[in-house]
């Protein structure tokens, strides 16, 4: 059936025959309706309403600052192992809960304050502009700068000093949360790297036999490894402590010792030095009897035990620390104190 044979009342709306019998096409249903007329907000016409919005934004930024302070204070107030019951979360860490709540509130208030500021005080006039080429012309650049200055004026950042100051305060304090989080990367070293388990009166225990050492147990030219009295391999901190307190004992002829302090800190030619290489902390295990040199197997740093364990070859930066030793009333070798300097390689706070 042709179009001409369809009754006019059955044709779609907007269609029909013209005087020449042609079908009339409907109007474009997707025509641009244009922008609706701008309606001013209450803040645009009432300065009191604008002041209320300003105070609201400032309050949100202030709450953000207080939340950041609460985040930092949580590290001091709540112990890491304190558990509390909070409905509906159940039993949770009070520290984790306080950190999450305070940091979340700080970030939320900054966002909410910025949104409320934009919706109530900044200009909401909509403008339409045709797309322009990627490379801007001088006229466009001038227009952009004018628009920027106009936007800065419309934001009322210079006029609303209360908002500006509280916003800057909130944005400046939130990063402090990240600084505080650095504290949780691990325990502070304090002066732990400067001290070991060695102390006056602690006997030297043979690491192989787990028995106290007597002077006669150490033969001339032999290399013996020792640990502090009281340190057991079953201890949970054994690896941490042995990494600082591992000791090697060598017996030399007193006449072969060149360094005066080394001779004073020895006992009948028995010298005790840290086993930890001062390059990268490898354990020293090779001893040459004729030269009295010890060698680190990792990078071949060589130390002269007859001359204060000074470095004679390799990348090590300084001599091995010596432990002053003596003999107790029972005839066992004992320490007369701790090492006088940190053992192992250099570290960031070494003075």
From TrEMBL:
The keyword Ribosomal protein does not apply. Keywords: 2Fe-2S, Cell membrane, Disulfide bond, Electron transport, Iron, Iron-sulfur, Membrane, Metal-binding, Oxidoreductase, Respiratory chain, Transmembrane, Transmembrane helix, Transport. The keyword Protein transport does not apply. Signal peptide: none annotated. Residues 244-334 form the Rieske domain. The chain crosses the membrane at residues 57-77, 97-118. It is found in: Cell membrane. It is a multi-pass membrane protein. Belongs to the Rieske iron-sulfur protein family. This is Cytochrome bc1 complex Rieske iron-sulfur subunit. Iron-sulfur subunit of the cytochrome bc1 complex, an essential component of the respiratory electron transport chain required for ATP synthesis. The bc1 complex catalyzes the oxidation of menaquinol and the reduction of cytochrome c in the respiratory chain. The bc1 complex operates through a Q-cycle mechanism that couples electron transfer to generation of the proton gradient that drives ATP synthesis. InterPro entries: QcrA_N (IPR045603), Rieske_2Fe-2S (IPR017941), Rieske_2Fe-2S_sf (IPR036922), Rieske_Fe-S_prot (IPR014349).
